[in-house]
Amino acid sequence: MLDFCEHAGGLVTPFFVTKKGGKLRLIFDCRVVNLRFKKAPKLAMGSGSSWSSLEVAEGDQLWIAQSDIKYYFYSLALPAELAKFFCLPSIDASLLKDWLVPASLGGLANNQGRCYPRLRVVPMGWSWAMWIAQRAHQFQALLGAGLNQDRLLVDGQPAPSLKDGTPIVLPYCDNLNIAGTNRELVQQAKDGAVKRLRAVGFLVHEEVDACLQVDSLGYTINGSTGIVAPQPLKAERLVKGLVYISRRPTMSGKQLEHVMGHCIHHMLLKRELLSLFRAFYDFISQCYDTPVKVWPSVAKEARWAASLLRLCHSNLRRPWDLLVTASDASLTGIAVTSTLWDHQDVVAVGAMNERWRYRGKHPSDKPRQSALGLLDPLLDVESDNYEINPDFKEIPEHLLLPADWKLRYSARMFDKEGIMILEGRGVEASLRHRLRAQRSFGKRCLNLGDNLGLTLGFCKGRFSSYPLLRIARRVTALTVAGDLNPAHRWHPSERNTADAGSRKWEPKGAPACHENGKEERDIQKSKLLFSIPEEEGEDRANFEKEELTCRIIDKSQVAAVMPCTNLDYERRLAEFMSFISERGLALKTQPSTDAAIVDFLHLMWEEGRELHEGLRFYAAFVAKHPEYGRSGHLRLPRTKRALTGWKKLAPCMTRPPMPWEVACLIASHMIQLGHVISALILVLLFSLYGRPTEILELRQKDLIRPRSAGGFFTVHLHPEEAMIASKVGLYEESLMLDSPFCLWLGPLLLKLVTAPDCQDLLFPLEYHTWKLHWDAAIKAAGLQELGYVPYQLRHGGPSHDHFFKLRSMLEIKLRGRWSADSTLKRYEAGGRIEQELLRLGAVRLRAAKDAAKNLEAKLTAACNNSMPSSLKPSGASKRPLGLQRSSASGAGGRTKVSSSSSSPAPPTSHKQLRMQGWTPRGGM
C-alpha cells in the first residue's frame, strides 16, 4: 500500500470507522487534495431500489448469484503521477532503516532527514475513488460474464428485460449481483465474472451460487415470490425506533436525521411514501444540535411511518394496467380521460421516469467528436459510456390521438386555487377513477399530465409546497389502498386530451342567459349599457353597471343557501336584532359588532341553550355579512373565543346510534298507522346510511334492478344530470341494497316504479310529511322520552353493521361517504347499541325484537294490499295505487298527499309550510 518519497505533492490523514463484524475501515481525509481535482463525472450506478424496477413474468422465478471483492479499494493501484498527491505526514527517515525498507519502495541511501509515506493504491476518501472502482468492476464483470453494457441494472434508465433469460448485472462498488430467470445462465455468468476478477488480481470471497433469495444492498430479494422488501431485522428495528419517537422523547435534529435516512432508504421501494414527512424536515433544520422534546407533528408523522413501513415492498410480478389515464385542470374545472394501449406501449412509456430527463449532457453539444470517438473521458466527462443515455424518450405522438381517448370524469372547481393545486386534484381524480374498477387493483399504472413540475414532484414522491404535499398524501393513500405502483409521465398540453373537458365551465365571452325573464332583461340591459358612448353617458353607465352587478350578486348569494335554511337564518337574525334594540347596542364598527354578538351568545348560554344553536346563529350572521366570514376582511375574535369556551363548558353530545330493533318498532307502528311508504323510507335510510333529504330526492329511474338472479338492487344518488350535489358537493354515487337483514327491501321498492326510465320521484312525500309520520309512530310506540330523531338512522346503520361484523370500517366509510376517519370512531363503540336497547325497558324491548322478526312480513303484506302488481289501465294515472297525489285547486292552493292507508295525512298548505320553515318542491 505504501512507498516513500522525499517530496509530497499533497497530504492526507488517515482515520477509521467501524463496519459490520466489529472490524475497522481505513479511510483517508482527502478534502484538501480533492480541491486540486475537477469534479468526477456522473456515473450510472445501481442501488438497492433498482431491484424494484425489474419485471418478472408470471410463472418465472428470479435466480440471483453474488460475489464480493476483498479489500477492493486497496487492491486498485495508483499511477505514480497520481500517487504523489496522496502522502501521509512526514516521518524520520531513519525509521526506514529500522523497518528494512528496500530501495524499490523508496528506501533512502543516507537515511537522513525526513520522508513522506506515499499511497500506492486508490484511497477511500478521494473524490474520484468511487468512479474508478465502479468503472473497473463494471468493465471486468461484464467482460467475464460475456454480457453487453445494456445488461447493466442501474438507476436512471429502464431495467433490462428478463423475458429471454439473459442475465442482468448489478455491480455496486465491491459487490456483484447477477440475476435472471434461467438458473444455468445466471450461474455461468457469475462463474465467468469471478474467474475474470481473479485473473486480474482481485481477491473474491463470499460467493453465493444462483439461488432464489438473497440480501442485497439493504433489501431482501425473494425470487420465488417476486417480492423485494427491506431486510426484516432492520425494518423491525426502524419501526421500533419510530414508535419510540411517536412517544415524544427528547432528542436532537441530528439524531432524527439518522432515523429519517433509514426511512428514506426503505421508502425508495415505494417513493410515494416519502410524502409522509414534512415536520421531520422542519425539526431537523431548527433543532439540529439542540435536544428538545419531539413536536406533536413529528410524533404524528412517526406513527404514520411506523405503520406504513410494513407495507413498503415491491412486487416484481405486478402486471401493467393497460388502462392509461390523462388528467388536466383549468381555473374552472378538472377532467380525466382514458384509453387502452397495447402492452408493449404501456411498458415502453411507463418504464421511463421524468426525473431522468435532465441527466447527462445533451449529445448535440459535441456531435463531431462523439461520432468520431475522440472524446476524452477525463476531459469530456459527459461522454462516459457508462453514463445514462441523455437521449430521453418522449411519448410517441400516435398514442395521443384525441379520437382514441374518452372523457371519463370532469368536475367544476368553485374555489380559487393555483393551477398547480388544481392539476394535482386532477391526478387525484384520475386515481379515484381507476380504483372504481376492481381489475385495476394491484397493478402498475400509468397517468399522463401536462404540468412538468407537478409530474416531477410525483415522480420524486414529495413536494416542498405544503398544499401540494397534502395532495401528494391523498394520492399516496389511494395508491396504498389500491395496491398500485403508479408511473407519471409528462406530455405537452397541446396533446392533452383532457384539456377540453376541464374547460367546459369557462365563460364563452358573453354572459349566459337565464330562464328567469327578469334576469334575461338584466342581460339585455347590460348589452345596451356597454354600448353607451363614454362621452355621452359615463356617469349613467357606471351607475347602471353597479346596479346590475349588485342585483346579480344578491341573487347568487341568496341561491348559495337553501330556501328553508334562509328562513331559519332570518328567524335567528330577527331574534338578534330584537336583542340589540332592547339593549341599545349598535353594529357600527367591528369591535362593537363583536361585543354585541358576545353578549347575545352569553344570553343564550344563560338560558340553557345548546351549543349548536349558537353555532347556527353565527352561521346566520356570517351568511348575512360575508365580510366577517372565512374569506372576508373583518374578524370576530371575541366571538370565536366565546364559542370555544361554550364548547369546553358544555361539549356537544353525539347522537347515540339507533338499534335495528328500535327502527323496526317505529316502522311497524308506521305500517299500523297506514304510512307504508314512510316505513320503506325508514328502512332505506338505515340500510344506506342515508340523509333524509337525499333519499326523498330519489327518482324512479335511480332504483336499478340487478342484472342476474341473486344480484342486488342499486340506488343511484345525486346524478349529474339532476344538478343536485351531495352535502360535500359530489355527484354520481351508487350504493347497493346488500344489507343481509333487509334483502327484501329492493323488490318492495320496485313496486313504486312505473317505468325504468321514469323521471318522477320514487317517494311522493315531502320531508315535513314524513317527519309527521315519524312523530306519530314515535308517540304510538311510547318512545317520546328517549328523544329519537331521524338522523340517528344514519348513525344506527353503520353501528349495527360494525357490531355484527357485516362490513369493515373501510366499507362503512365508503358507504356512508365520510371523508374523515375520525367520524368513524363513534361506530366502533358497539356497546352503545346494547345501552340503547336497555333504555327501552323489558316491555318495549320485547316489542322491538318482535317487530324486527316480523317487519318483512308486515311490509310485504302492506305493500301487496296497497300496491298490486298490475298498474292502472291506460288512460289512468301512471302512478302505482296507494301513491297517487291529488292536487286541489281550492282556496289556499292546498296539496293533498294520500298514503296507502285508509286514514290519509291531513292536508298542509304552502303558507303553513313556509311558516314552518319548509319550501315545497316544484309542482306541488
TrEMBL record:
UniProt signal peptide: none
Biased composition (Basic and acidic residues): 491-507
InterPro entries: DNA/RNA_pol_sf (IPR043502), DNA_brk_join_enz (IPR011010)
GO MF entry, a single one: DNA binding
Source organism superkingdom: Eukaryota
Region (Disordered): 489-518, 864-924
Name of protein: Uncharacterized protein
Species of origin: Polarella glacialis
Classification lineage: Eukaryota, Sar, Alveolata, Dinophyceae, Suessiales
